C-alpha cells in the first residue's frame, strides 16, 4: 500500500486460521458474523458492538465464522501515529455504530472521492482516540512546536523556525517530536498542509495556484508534486470531482 493511501473496504474472511502482519494500521468493524483475532497476545473478537485495532507491524492471527462481513480500514502509520494508544479491542457506542453504518453506505455507493474517504477514515480514528486513547503527557516544548506548526503552516517556515519556537536545537526537536508525536515535524507539517489543501479543493472556488499559496508552497509545481505523492492523484483530480 502506498505510504499515504487510505483503504476503506468491506471484506469477508474464511474459517481457516491465518497469521500475518502489515506495515499499516488496520481497523476492523463488525457488519455481520464474527472474526476471531489474536493481537499482541490478546484474544478477542469483532462481533456486534466490538471492533479491533491492529497497529502497524504487529503479528496477528485471525479466523472467521461463516457468512461474515466486516468494514476494514487500512491506514498508513503517518496518517494516524497515535492509533497505538487505543486498546486492541474496543466496544462501539451507538454513535460509533451509526458512523460505521454510514461508512458502509459510502463504500457501497462507490462514488466517494479518495480525499473524502481519507477524511472520513481519519475522523473515525479521532473519535476512537477521544473515547479510548491513553492521553500522553506531551513535553511542553513539543506542545509549543505543534502549536507553532498549527498556526504557521500557511507560511514558508524552516525547521530552525520551529526549533526556536520550542527552545530546542533542530536535532533535539526532531528526536523529541518523533518520539512523542509519532512523526517528524516535517511529516506533521506536510500532513497539515495536505489536509487543508484537500479541503480547499473540495469546498472552495480558489484556483489550484491560490490553494498552493494558501498552504505554504511558493510554486504550483512543488505543491502539485507533493500533493500527488501524498494522495496518489493530482489536485486537478479532486477539483474535477468537487465540480
Automatic annotation (TrEMBL):
Question: Transmembrane stretches, by residue range?
Answer: none
GO MF term list: DNA-binding transcription factor activity; sequence-specific DNA binding
InterPro entries this protein is in? AraC_XylS_family_regulators, Homeodomain-like_sf, HTH_AraC, HTH_AraC-typ_CS, RmlC-like_jellyroll, RmlC_Cupin_sf, Tscrpt_reg_AraC-type_HTH
In which domain of life is the source organism classified? Bacteria
HTH araC/xylS-type domain segment(s): 143-241
What residue stretch is flagged as signal peptide? none
Instruction: For this UniProt record, give its keywords in alphabetical order, as a comma-separated list.
Output: DNA-binding, Transcription, Transcription regulation
**One GO BP:** positive regulation of metabolic process
Q: Record's SMART domains?
A: HTH_ARAC (SM00342)
Q: What does this protein do?
A: Regulatory protein of the TOL plasmid xyl operons. XylS activates the xylXYZLTEGFJQKIH operon required for the degradation of toluene, m-xylene and p-xylene.
Put simply, this protein is called AraC family transcriptional regulator
Lineage per the UniProt record: Bacteria, Pseudomonadati, Pseudomonadota, Gammaproteobacteria, Pseudomonadales
Amino acid at each position: 500500500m502506498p505510504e499515504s493511501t487510505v483503504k476503506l473496504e468491506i471484506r469477508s474472511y474464511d474459517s481457516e486460521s491465518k497469521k500475518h502482519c502489515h506495515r499499516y494500521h488496520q481497523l476492523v468493524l463488525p457488519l455481520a458474523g464474527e472474526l476471531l483475532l489474536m493481537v499482541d497476545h490478546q484474544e478477542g473478537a469483532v462481533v456486534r458492538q466490538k471492533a479491533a485495532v491492529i497497529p502497524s507491524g504487529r503479528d496477528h492471527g485471525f479466523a472467521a465464522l461463516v457468512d461474515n462481513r466486516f468494514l476494514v480500514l487500512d491506514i498508513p502509520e503517518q496518517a494516524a501515529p497515535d492509533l497505538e494508544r487505543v486498546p486492541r479491542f474496543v466496544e462501539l457506542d451507538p454513535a460509533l455504530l451509526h458512523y460505521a453504518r454510514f461508512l458502509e453506505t459510502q463504500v457501497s455507493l462507490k462514488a466517494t472521492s479518495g480525499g473524502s474517504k481519507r477524511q472520513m477514515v481519519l475522523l473515525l480514528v479521532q473519535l476512537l482516540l477521544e473515547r479510548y486513547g491513553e492521553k500522553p503527557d506531551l513535553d511542553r516544548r513539543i506542545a509549543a512546536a505543534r502549536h507553532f506548526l498549527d498556526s504557521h503552516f500557511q507560511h514558508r517556515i524552516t525547521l530552525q523556525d520551529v526549533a526556536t519556537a520550542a527552545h530546542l536545537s533542530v536535532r533535539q526537536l526532531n528526536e523529541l517530536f518523533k518520539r512523542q508525536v509519532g512523526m517528524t515535524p516535517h511529516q506533521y507539517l506536510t500532513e497539515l498542509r495536505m489536509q487543508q489543501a484537500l479541503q480547499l479543493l473540495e469546498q472552495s472556488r480558489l484556483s489550484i495556484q491560490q490553494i498552493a499559496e494558501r498552504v505554504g508552497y511558493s510554486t504550483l509545481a512543488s505543491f502539485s508534486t507533493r500533493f500527488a505523492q501524498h494522495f496518489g492523484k493530482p489536485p486537478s483530480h479532486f477539483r474535477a470531482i468537487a465540480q
